Amino acid sequence: MFENRPKNPPPTASPKKEVLRGDPPSPKRGTPPEKFVYLNGDFLALEEARISPEDRGFLLGDGLFETIRSYNGRLFRWPQHRARLESGLEELRIPASEIPERIPHIFDELRVRNKIAEAVMRITISRGAGGTGYSWNPAAPRTVYATLRRPPDIPQRRKRGMTLETSSIPRPLPFTSVVKTISLGAMALARLEAYADEALLLDAGGFVAEGTASAVFFLFGQEFIRPEAAVLKSITAEVIEELRPVRVHRLSLEEARCADAIFLASTGMGPIGVREWDGRSYPHRHPLITALQADFDRLVAVETGAGN
């Protein structure tokens, strides 16, 4: 496919810093939750929220989460997020079918209490407390926790671009592509070792998969390529595929490095260009990326009324 493209030699890697041995941590990422949160039917201050130490989400990672972006006080692509959440609950056999229908109300209440319209909402659901070892008490109530965070400064992020670093941690293969499990130890470790905005994960065969919290796309000429090894069903990636023809291809690391441009796509930020990957520069304001961002913004405005 890319035989005629010049092979870019991999950049000289800078020595890894061992952040687990007391060195200064990498720059702070993300924002803390807003003051008011939702927990098991109650809206309360964050510092008052308490979850049982026997909760299976804490002990076993037995649960899932969903992250949804709001614009203009409205949840973007909520039906698609709801469908993925319901599929995940079914796959994990967590009896909580009544929860998804309550989420828009939970969001509205949190939005009002926190006085925020532009937000990233995270809903975390675990099987709850109870049981010994892997056994489970079916009578135990589920744990449902929801927060709002202020979104990143998108114009500034687009202007600055993202940095990307290939992780030594392989992408763990989940048992299903529809469950956003809270068992994220591998993702956390990949981000911990990366001195970059995002860590790029490879599959067990060394092929490009995805970021820890984002889908990754590569531009070759006019063609948009998404790695075949990507695992998670990404709703933002689906939006990109509505706006542009995208070809799925099994990308080796060597092929991927020859891309003309790279961008990431996530719930919180939409499409954002990559300015540097493993020390090599890429045009994060590539015309095809900026045109895609403009079309993405227009779609969001149409569906949510943002900007009105």
Helix content: 25-40%
Rg from alpha-carbon coordinates = 20 Å
How would you state the average pLDDT, rounded? 87
In CATH, the architecture of the largest domain is Alpha-Beta Barrel
What does this structure look like?
Helix content is 26%, strand content 26%. The protein has 308 residues and is an alpha+beta fold. It has 2 domains: 36-151, Aminotransferase class 4, branched-chain amino acid transferase, N-terminal domain (D-amino Acid Aminotransferase, Chain A, domain 1), CATH 3.30.470; 155-304, D-amino Acid Aminotransferase, subunit A, domain 2 (D-amino Acid Aminotransferase, Chain A, domain 2, Alpha-Beta Barrel). The longest helix has 18 residues, at 287-304. The protein is globular, with a radius of gyration of 20 Å.
Short description:
With 308 residues, the protein is an alpha+beta fold.
How would the blueprint of this fold be written?
Blueprint: E1 36-39, E2 42-45, H1 56-60, E3 63-71, E4 74-75, H2 78-92, H3 103-114, E5 119-126, E6 143-149, H4 154-160, E7 162-166, H5 185-193, E8 198-202, E9 208-211, E10 215-220, E11 223-227, H6 235-243, E12 246-249, H7 253-257, E13 261-266, E14 270-277, E15 280-281, H8 287-304
Parallel strand pairs: 7-8, 7-14, 11-12
Antiparallel strand pairs: 1-2, 1-6, 3-4, 3-5, 5-6, 8-9, 10-11, 10-13, 13-14, 14-15
Structure characteristics:
26% strand; D-amino Acid Aminotransferase, Chain A, domain 1; 308 residues; D-amino Acid Aminotransferase, Chain A, domain 2; 15 strands; globular; 9-stranded mixed β-sheet; single chain; alpha+beta; 2 domains
